[in-house]
């Protein structure tokens, strides 16, 4: 089966169970709102807090099932009107919880001794971090009436702009070789073994974007403008400051990582220039050859072959990881193939109420697609470790969200490299370096770009040409002489959905964090062997109830210092040096 199975959610939108569960949200709204009067007095505060949090767990599990069903169906059919209708209905219902949640935050913040409260019961002790994070966030909240209004306005503001970008890019028709392709199908040709296919697909892709670039530019401005307005109103220093607070991460940790990445840019450029030379280019690597396969093992994988490859290599780490992948395959958690109306890229959705995940791929059969599958199953493994926690303690933040996924990529690649002969080793190593370069160098370009967009948008409207200029400037700063300046990608801002969220800015550097943190953890695994796996599982389990710095300390890692990041980057440098040696 190549499509995912959603029957564990509901049979259809028309099913009695789905309709009843949508209506039941109204009952939950009444139950939650009934606490508003109880928040007026701090008598029996611990009882009130515990009862409210238990209700919140029940509500989030219920809503999680309903909303996941709608969003997953929408991801595979972006033009489906029923999905669009229920998405709007649900988001409108969600806004009805806003005022009660604001009052709960105020109630918690007004209590004198929180430590006494959280120690008054086992349940509250288990949720101490969650409670204290709510109190910390209170300084950025507005009054309940304003918050209620903003929550409703968001549904016709940034949320609609985000949906517009998703619909336009998923339905964009690209004319190539006398046929019409979807954008994900064209993007998949970047890994084709034929250089003419890669170049012509790239040119066709760029030629298609003007059909939608003005509209998507409005979406970008609408979202970034809303974020700039709201971060200032709420008292954040910037959108980046808000992203760091949401991520439960300190700015000094991000600075240490970004500075280390910049230090190693010359190393990555050596790899890019060598690849360029091997492929016969004289002016740096053109964008369309960034993902060109090298070596002699550029085989095409069928879906069963990809499944077997991942199962075999996951098994080298732990039975738990292999079992998770087997359950995902047997349970039809994965939607594999690209088709019209399906969103591009890949993602994994952890479904807490089902204790399962669902994985979306756009699988074309390349080894890179196998690595992507391993990456997304890593997210599923993270979920599997955290499902034993309540849903309130299972909400991990952006940086650690990419840790298990990148760790699983590393498992697959290291296992594949182990027994490879020279030409296979070049292929596998170069494929790994493609990923590392994307996650360090390209992510840095995206970080630079998004920073410049937020700054420039404060006093101007950024049309499609200005956005293209900012994108090219960021790419030149990050890639330098590694890329051919005549063949960059001015439209990378248009199709990446990460830029189009009003509630999740700077979803770029967390990927670099995930790669480098995972490289460091993998080094510990190599040093400690099997005894590392339970420690690793506990670390993943703790990601929903600790700061990023404290999660790292569980593995004796200090992420506020450049030393750790430099050590992780040196692991990639070793791979680059091996690649340079093999391609002399």
Summarize the structure.
This protein is mainly α and 584 residues long. Helices cover 65% and strands 3% of the residues. The chain has a domain at 16-156: Butyryl-CoA Dehydrogenase, subunit A, domain 3, CATH 1.20.140.
List the helices and strands and how they pair.
Layout: H1 16-33, H2 45-76, H3 81-94, H4 98-110, H5 114-118, H6 122-126, H7 128-137, H8 144-156, H9 158-171, E1 173-176, E2 179-182, H10 183-188, H11 195-208, H12 213-234, H13 239-246, H14 251-263, H15 265-278, H16 303-314, H17 319-330, E3 334-335, E4 347-351, E5 356-360, H18 367-386, H19 398-401, H20 403-418, H21 422-457, H22 464-479, H23 492-495, H24 509-528, H25 532-542, H26 548-553, H27 562-582
Parallel strand pairs: 3-5
Antiparallel strand pairs: 1-2, 4-5
Helix pairs in contact: 1-2, 2-3, 4-7, 4-8, 9-12, 14-27, 15-27, 16-17, 16-18, 16-20, 17-18, 18-20, 18-25, 20-21, 20-24, 21-22, 21-24, 21-27, 24-27
């Amino acid at each position: 089966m190549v499509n995912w199975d959603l029957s564990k959610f509901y049979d259809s939108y028309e099913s009695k169970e789905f309709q009843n569960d949508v209506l039941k949200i109204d009952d939950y709204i009444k139950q939650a709102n009934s606490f508003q009067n109880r928040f007026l007095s701090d008598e029996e505060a611990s009882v009130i807090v515990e009862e409210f949090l238990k209700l919140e767990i029940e509500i989030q599990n219920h809503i999680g099932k309903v909303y996941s069903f709608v969003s997953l169906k929408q991801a595979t059919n972006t033009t489906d009107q029923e999905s669009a209708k229920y998405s709007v209905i649900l988001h409108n219902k969600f806004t009805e919880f806003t005022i009660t949640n604001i009052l709960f935050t105020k109630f918690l913040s007004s209590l004198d001794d929180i430590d006494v409260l959280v120690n008054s019961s086992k349940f509250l002790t288990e949720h101490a971090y969650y409670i204290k994070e709510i109190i910390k966030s209170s300084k950025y909240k507005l009054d309940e009436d304003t918050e209620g209004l903003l929550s409703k306005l968001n549904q016709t503001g940034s949320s609609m702009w985000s949906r517009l970008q998703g619909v336009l890019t998923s339905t964009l028709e690209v004319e190539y070789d006398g046929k019409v392709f979807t954008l994900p199908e064209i993007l998949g040709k970047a890994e084709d073994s034929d250089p003419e296919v890669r170049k012509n697909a790239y040119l066709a892709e760029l030629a298609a974007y003007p059909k939608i670039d003005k509209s998507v530019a409005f979406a970008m401005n609408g979202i970034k403008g809303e974020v700039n307005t709201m971060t200032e109103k709420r008292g954040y220093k910037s959108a980046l400051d808000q992203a760091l607070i949401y991520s439960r991460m300190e700015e000094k940790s991000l600075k240490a990582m970004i500075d280390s990445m910049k230090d190693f840019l010359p190393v990555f450029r050596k790899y890019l220039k060598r690849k360029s030379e091997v492929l016969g280019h004289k002016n740096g690597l053109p964008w369309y050859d960034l993902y060109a396969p090298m070596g002699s093992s550029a085989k095409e994988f069928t879906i069963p072959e990809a499944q077997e490859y991942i199962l075999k290599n996951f098994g080298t780490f732990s039975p738990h990881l292999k079992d998770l992948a087997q359950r995902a395959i047997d349970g039809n958690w994965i939607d594999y193939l690209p088709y019209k109306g399906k969103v591009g890229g890949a993602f994994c959705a952890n479904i807490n109420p089902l204790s399962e995940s669902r994985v979306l791929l756009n699988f074309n059969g390349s080894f890179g697609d196998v690595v992507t599958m391993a990456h997304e199953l890593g997210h599923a493994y993270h979920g599997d470790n955290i499902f034993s926690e309540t849903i309130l303690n299972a909400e991990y933040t952006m940086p650690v969200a990419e840790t298990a996924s990148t760790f699983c990529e590393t498992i697959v690649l290291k296992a594949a490299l182990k027994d490879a002969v020279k030409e296979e080793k070049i292929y596998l190593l170069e494929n790994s370096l493609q990923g590392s370069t994307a996650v360090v160098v390209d992510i840095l370009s995206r970080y630079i770009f998004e920073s410049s967009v937020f700054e420039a948008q404060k006093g101007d409207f950024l049309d499609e040409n200005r956005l293209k200029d900012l994108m090219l400037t960021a790419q030149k700063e990050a890639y330098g002489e590694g890329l051919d300046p005549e063949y960059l990608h001015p439209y990378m801002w248009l199709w990446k959905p990460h830029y189009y969220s009003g509630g999740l800015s700077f979803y770029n550097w967390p990927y670099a964090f995930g790669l480098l943190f995972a490289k460091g953890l993998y080094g510990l695994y190599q040093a400690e062997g099997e005894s590392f796996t339970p420690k690793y599982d506990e670390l993943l389990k703790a990601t929903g109830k600790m700061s990023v710095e404290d999660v790292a300390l569980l593995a004796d890692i200090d992420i506020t210092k450049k030393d750790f990041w430099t050590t992780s980057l040196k692991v990639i440098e070793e791979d680059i040096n091996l690649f340079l040696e093999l391609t002399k």
